[in-house]
Amino acid sequence: MLWPVIFILPFTLWHFTSDVVSYFRYGAPAGQLWYVFSKLFALYAVLLLWYQGLSTLLKDTHYSTLFSTWGFLRHRIIGCLTLLLIVSHIVCFVTAVSLRKETFAWGLLLPDFQDFYHMAISIGLFGFFTLLIAISAALLRERFPSVWKMTHRSMILVVGLGLVHGYLIGTETRYGLYEIFYCALIVTLLIALLLRWQVIKSKSI
Q1: Closest Cα partner for 109 from 6, 100, 97?
Q2: pLDDT, tens digit, 9 for 90 and up, residues 63-99
Q3: What angle do CA 148, 2, 197 make, to 5 degrees?
Q4: 183 with 164: CB under 8 angstroms?
Q5: pLDDT tens digits, residue range 114-132?
Q6: What is the DSSP string of 169-189?
Q7: How far out from the chain centre does Cα 180 lie?
């Protein structure tokens, strides 16, 4: 039910805020094309993260019908696609900044809280590192059966960090369509967490 939105919405937002056609036609500043494609990958990645998180949290609620049947294979495929999009986002962003500065921007790959901009990037980095831990736990589930599931649940933290990172770092996220986009994802995730908590609470009674 939500798949058409996932395919169409990120590209639509990206198209209305990135003058890609003009860049190809008239040229663009150094690294600009890499930057705008980094933003496209990020939009798809954050929406897929949100979808995975929401479908898991609402699995035992009345709202589970909003999502298609969620098999293990599909979960792994979407997870791999999301990881690929996030890595592509990081590569394109670092490349864009490196081309602008004419030197490799390796500092972007390290946590840095010296100002608002670098703090926002660091939030995304922590989300990425947590993602790698959660994926590793799933891959090693047979070797560590007692801890992998709890570790993999940190994906909810990844979704939250990804949403906050996207909202803070984007120049368009303080107004208009981007603000609505990120706020809607954050609010629905919080509602899903509340509903999940209610389900767990009812089962414990």
Answers
A1: 97
A2: 777 776 666 778 888 999 999 999 999 999 999 999 9
A3: 45
A4: no
A5: 898 899 999 999 999 999 9
A6: H-TTTTSHHHHHHHHHHHHHH
A7: 16
